[in-house]
Write a sequence for this structure.
């Protein structure tokens, strides 16, 4: 198990060694899991993939206009899972080239 060692100055002028497990937050700045939503009647989730570079971008396509609102770059399967979890998407996402 990896651990992070931080140096803290104590009031006597010395330093204390504090051990923290990797992934634990220090308290003040904690990543929050915020669920977001989208209009399921007017928009559908899509992945736009470049034929040339293979770059993939996840976003929402307006069903009426066809305009794509890009949300995030997909670099790994974890990014795709994060996108699906953030917006509560359970179905397979259509790919457009």
């Amino acid at each position: 198990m990896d651990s992070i060692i931080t140096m803290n100055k104590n009031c006597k002028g010395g330093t204390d060694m504090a051990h923290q497990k990797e992934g634990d937050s220090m308290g003040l700045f904690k990543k929050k899991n915020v669920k977001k939503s989208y209009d399921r009647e007017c928009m559908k989730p899509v992945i736009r993939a470049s034929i040339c570079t293979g770059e993939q971008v996840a976003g929402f396509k307006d069903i009426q206009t066809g305009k794509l609102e890009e949300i995030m770059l997909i670099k790994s399967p974890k990014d795709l899972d994060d996108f699906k979890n953030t917006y509560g998407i359970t179905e397979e996402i259509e790919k457009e080239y």
In short: DSSP finds one helix and six strands in the chain. Confidence is low (pLDDT under 50) at residues 1-23. The first helix runs from residue 77 to 87.
